[in-house]
Amino acid sequence: MTTLTHAGILTRRELAHWVRQPMAPIFNLAFSLMLLAMFGLLFGGAIEVPGGDDYIGFLLPGLLAMVMMFGIQGTMLGMAEDAKRGISDRFRSLPMSGAAVAMGRSGADMLSSALELVVLVGGGLLMGWRIDATPLEAIAGVALLLWLRYTLVWLGIFLGLTFRGESAMVAVQVLVWPIGFASNALVAPETMPAWLGAITEWNPISATATAVRQLFGNATGITGGWLADASIWLAIGWPALIIAIFLPLSARAYRRLGD
Amino acid sequence: MSTPLAISATGIHKRYGGTAALDGFDLEVLAGTIHGLLGPNGAGKSTAVGVLTTLRRADAGQASIAGFDVRRQAGEVRRRIGLVGQAHAVDDILGGRQNLVMFGRLAGLAPAAARARADELLERFELIEAAAKPVSQYSGGMRRRLDIAVALLLSPAVLFLDEPTTGLDPRGRAEVWLAVGEVAQRGAAVLLTTQYLDEADRMAGRISVLRRGAVIAEGTPRELKQSIGGDRVAVAPNDPADLAATAAAMQSAIGAEAHVDEETRTVTVPALDGTAAVLAVLRAVDAAGIEIADLELRRPTLDDVFLTLTKEAA
């Protein structure tokens, strides 16, 4: 109970940051909208979706999955900053549980990502994207996106606690791009060279993007292969694997911060 | 049973990779006293603070805070300590009051109690006017005061200050000294690590000198100074030819052997009773008809102690 109270206090701390420095979250949302406009309007006309559907129907769920993955930078930065500034040590010197720190961080990050989902969906609707599914399916799609994001919070916590240097931050900021692009989030693997298409099918982002497309009733850009059949299970399983690995690693890294 | 020591540590060892940060570290601090932990960079001061505040785990040895073991009763220890680390462990984006209320809530205070305590501490540390401003706009001294105020939220039995004045201007240092002195007056034990000898001399009732992870000397500042010879009276005669006569006069006045330094042309004798010795020397030298160019009472500084001790141990 106290752990939950503490987590709530720490989540509110992040929200207080947004109020004090609103440009950071606004810029973050604007960046997501810019991606949507760039691919939806600028490149969209030149991109062909196998099966012949509208690109915006294919793009939006993919972009949502990619943005969930990009959120990892915010998690990592927040953890690294607190560790560097001694705020983590202060938390650790207080009679409070380390789980509260992680829960507070994930609470704020989940709110931030949920806001991004809302804004991107709004932008997508303006650009002609439509959902063609029952409310239950739509909710399941959103749940899969947030599930991916939640498990990546733990990867972000681990990275932020373990690699605190500026260069590590830059490395992650650069690496999210090839990881995001080497998926079916923006382009159908069937249009890629065979070897690259095969790699992208194994990207966890591809699994979530495909599952969400199916649940939303949007074009999957897939005309054959294993991913279309297994996507929902993979969209549950990949994140489960991520959290199974990085939750214990994060807890260990937090306990060992002083050593 | 007597009241437990505020801080007790015996035989603490802590290694990082191949190097020993703490190598048999011992410490005893009584409630209501300020204890200085003095040592050069890398002597193990911060590691010692880390072990005593439960942030770092010792490889060997035993340590307790107010009778509670830092390893087995970490929760109890955390309820009784306040930590001011080397980094400014406050949220820069939030205001001073927001910081105090947040850390107060995290420390277990109820919302109303946390707000009341925040206001009390803001007033005590003269931060009322800046309470709503983001901490990033605070001066170094103000930030440190806020840092100390956060550490005092739970009225800790032991306050740890890890180089609290490093990087502060003289005014900021004076502000911190004032705040820390007040904390000890209220009955808390304070462990203060510092590289500044004047700071330890001024603040601490007792001092432990740390070198390579072990305490090489412990005592009051006065004891430490006396351990390397205490006060001396030095006289420089006007005419170097009078050195021998001066030494003879001083020796008979004090009743202790005089030391003649040909190079600096001075004669020194121990001055166990301080200024009285100065007067006796002055009379004797004057009676001998020796003209004096310079006379001074030399008190060893902690710098002398520190340099002597760390040289000996090398």
From TrEMBL, chain A:
Keyword Cell membrane: yes
UniProt entry keywords in alphabetical sequence: Antibiotic resistance, Cell membrane, Membrane, Transmembrane, Transmembrane helix, Transport
Entry superkingdom: Bacteria
GO molecular function, one term: ABC-type transporter activity
A Gene Ontology biological process term: response to antibiotic
InterPro entries for this protein: ABC2_TM (IPR013525), ABC2_TM_bact-type (IPR047817), ABC_2_transport (IPR000412), T7SS_ABC-Transporter (IPR051328)
One Pfam family from the record: ABC2_membrane
Subcellular location: Cell membrane
Entry's transmembrane regions: 26-47, 59-80, 113-132, 138-161, 168-187, 230-249
Gene Ontology CC: ATP-binding cassette (ABC) transporter complex
Membrane topology value: Multi-pass membrane protein
Every ABC transmembrane type-2 domain range: 23-257
Family (UniProt): Belongs to the ABC-2 integral membrane protein family.
The name this protein goes by in its record: Transport permease protein
Organism: Agrococcus baldri
UniProtKB/TrEMBL annotation, chain B:
Family matches, as InterPro entries: AAA+_ATPase, ABC_transporter-like_ATP-bd, ABC_transporter-like_CS, ABC_transporter_ATP-binding, DrrA, DrrA1/2-like_C, P-loop_NTPase
Subcellular location: Cell membrane
GO biological process: daunorubicin transport; doxorubicin transport; response to antibiotic
GO terms for MF: ATP binding; ATP hydrolysis activity
Residue ranges of every copy of the ABC transporter domain listed in the record: 7-237
UniProt KW keywords: Antibiotic resistance, ATP-binding, Cell membrane, Membrane, Nucleotide-binding, Translocase, Transport
SMART domains the record matches: AAA
Source species, domain of life: Bacteria
GO CC, any one term: plasma membrane
Membrane topology: Peripheral membrane protein
Family to which the UniProt record says this protein belongs: Belongs to the ABC transporter superfamily. Drug exporter-1 (DrugE1) (TC 3.A.1.105) family.
Protein's UniProt name: ABC-2 type transport system ATP-binding protein
Species: Agrococcus baldri
Lineage: Bacteria, Bacillati, Actinomycetota, Actinomycetes, Micrococcales
